[in-house]
Amino acid sequence: xxxxxxxxxxxxxxxxxxxxxxxxxxxxxxxxAARQAGVRLPxxxxxxxxxSCICLLVRGEIQYRIEWPGLSREEQQExxxxxxxxxxxxxxxxxxxx
Length: 98
Fold this sequence. Notes:
By secondary structure, the chain is α+β, with helices and mostly antiparallel strands. 13% of the residues lie in helices and 31% in strands. It starts with 6 loop residues before the first strand and ends with a strand.
């Protein structure tokens, strides 16, 4: 019997106006999934401290791989996320900052 792992659809809205789509598998960060699909998202440190990849979570649920990513409590409440350390736990709609 094989075990299937869930995967989630991610839609990225950016400055170009054309949404980009990719699939994020369970256990994979949003940034890893984007890179695997050929979708370029801003990045640098990839460990949740530099904030280069910051995006607004418009819809969906994520869970962080680290206890406290480089976001203030207020930013988290506003919906900002760091895709380099965030795993999708549902389909996502994220917006790149302008």
